[in-house]
Fold this protein.
Amino acid sequence: MTGRQCINAENLHAGYGMQEIVKSISCSFAPGTFTGIIGPNGSGKTTLLRAFSRVIPASGILELNGKEIGDYTPAELGMAVGFVPQDEERPFSYTVLQVVLMARYARTSRFSALAPADYARCHTALEETGLTHLKDRSIRALSGGEWQRVLIARALAQETQVLLLDEPTSHLDLTHQSEVLSLMRNLAGSGSTIIGVFHDLNLAALFCDRLIMIRNGQVVADDIPSHVLTPEKIREVYGADVITSVHPATGRTFLMPLAVTTGRIAPDNIPNVLVISGGGSGTDLLHFLSRKGFSLTAGILATTDTDYLTAKALEIPCIPILPFSQIPAHSLKKMRSLFSRADRIILSMHPVGTGNLPVLIALREADPARIIVHLPEGRDFPSYDFAKGVAAAHFQDLCAAGAHCTGSFNGILGLLDTAPNKIQQFSE
Amino acid sequence: MSGNRKINGTPDRLLPHIRSIQSIRLSQDSAPLTETDGVILLLTKTIPLIICLAVVAVLTIVLCIFTGPAGFGFVSTAPGTADIVGGIRLPRVFAAFFVGASLAVAGAAMQALFRNPMADPYILGTSSGGALGASLAIVFLGGFFVPVFAWIGAVAAILIVWSIAGRRGVISVETLLLTGIAVSFFFSALVSFLITIAGQNVHQIIFWLMGGFWNASQSDAFLAAGILVPAGALLFFMGRDLNALSLGEETAAHLGIDATRVRWIVLGGSTLLVAGAVSIAGAIGFIGLVTPHIVRMLIGPDNRAVIPASLLVGGIFLVLSDTIARTFFSDLPVGIITAFIGASFFIWLIHQRGVAT
């Protein structure tokens, strides 16, 4: 990076007592930037922030505006660095204004009263955080979100070059989250250095220019949000599966968590399961089976189908076709090859009309013993028939020929587990 | 402030969205700003209240000097009146005022420091240390040098607590509190042991433990005042630091306050006040606990107001309690009266609204 750095940390170590939480972190922060620090619980985000504000001892180099942070007097530091804690004790009934006025202590002699300019700055901070109407309220009577805004107002009233935020929006509702973070953006725009710890990755991506991802007290990634918030990095650091995308309205990266994988089956014993679904009928089932660790394949799916989006998100191979078009012959051929490769085929009941009837007809060629029909409880075959009875007849024949029929996911699971006849059919 | 603030670094597509959120907030009419409402509060509430308390304190002192088992002495020309009023009551009333004031100021400072409105100035072992010193003097020195030994015991208790709590460098307030409680119990055990071997001196120890002004002399009054004036002023000028500290030591540090230094100064000042009070009058309870409570109910928790107001209320409280004790209860230990009033007030407080302020 070029230009003057506001905070410069090199080889920084910090922790509590014997326990080292931050291990050799080097990073620097330029004026006019809003940086988010992200990482799983216990990764050292807050510890790093507290090292920056000098409330816990740190070893290594830590410079603020070119001067070692240890050389600052407490009052100088109070005028240079503001800190918004996640929460704070409130044993006494100060008024909101009294708490915000504490921001000006560092700038005033203990033997003189605060100046009108100090009051003006505090009132501005109260207004910026939407607290003017609460200024005479006792802090003990505030909600968690209101109290968090008071802490933010107090840090704003400190008028510091650097603002450190420890999950500044954790107690805030939707409106106040955007409001507070927009305010922080504006401050960064006017030259402040804002560093915030975030749990909400989407908020961090939306408002920060740069994200530093931390794991076990070390920097894993330090870049613009779209480069940091990749499914691979999130998986590596958080151990969670997410889908990322660019939000159409904001142009920023956003991500959605997928359910955590649990109860995986041993890798050498994974049956290949083909799920034939449509019209969103297979979405839940695909998620369910994916969580259970089955090796999945999906059938022919139109690209507008929810099932298609699910398959794509879960990285399940499928045969995509254009929506509202006839199924091409090569797709059906591919489908047949899938029948032969799958250990089990699940027909998730979905509306069948003349358009997708060929899939059902093709299915009749597969071994019925390997087919599981998922018919949700309370539904019958004719209710899925949009092909003048032809589809319903096929459904009935399928069951009569030996396909297993079940109404629940657990039923499917039971049938999949009792499928020892892992038939290695002829391969293509 | 306008709704058209420049929103830097945000993608243009986001701007209308953020502006609309801001305009919701900005359109809420805020009350016209008063740049000086702190000053107005000071002029309309805090200062008049403190002046009132000062007037009440003066009236209380005057009234109590002329009150006692020997009757009113305003216009009395009976022989001995001057001796009783000037030689006995005058120093006793002033000693009571300064001791009560010292305990209340130390209590207010300790409560802010320990972030606990229930904290007591004796919490770090001053009273049990003083009791041990006094008991030793009573048992082994025949009752001579009791105040000196009480003072040494009180200060020694704090020093022991500091050194134990501070062994591992950084001391948390919680460690200090726990150490104080442990040391208090240890000293109380020693005092109990001394009581069992005290023989005929036992009532002297018990009376000391309850606290009173039977032997208050002019020099006691001067001593108490001599400690109260500088230590009280010190704590008063630490008022805003105490405000910040009462929200947490890290908070204070973030607000630019040298939290560690302030803590030692406040503990040192409070220790001098409490040790002085204990050496003069024994372990009088509840003044230091209840007075700051009452004061905060009257004028809020700002320590720059709480400390001077506690000084006055604590003094008034103890002078009245002592006058009641010597006038109506044939010189009962005043600690019994303060405990009776203080505990009743506390029960009422809990009944009223939980333990607030």
Notes: Chain B has a mean pLDDT of 80. The domain at 83-353 of chain B is CATH 1.10.3470.10 (ABC transporter involved in vitamin B12 uptake, BtuC). Chain B has one domain: 83-353. Chain B touches chain A through 55 residues (CB under 8 Å).
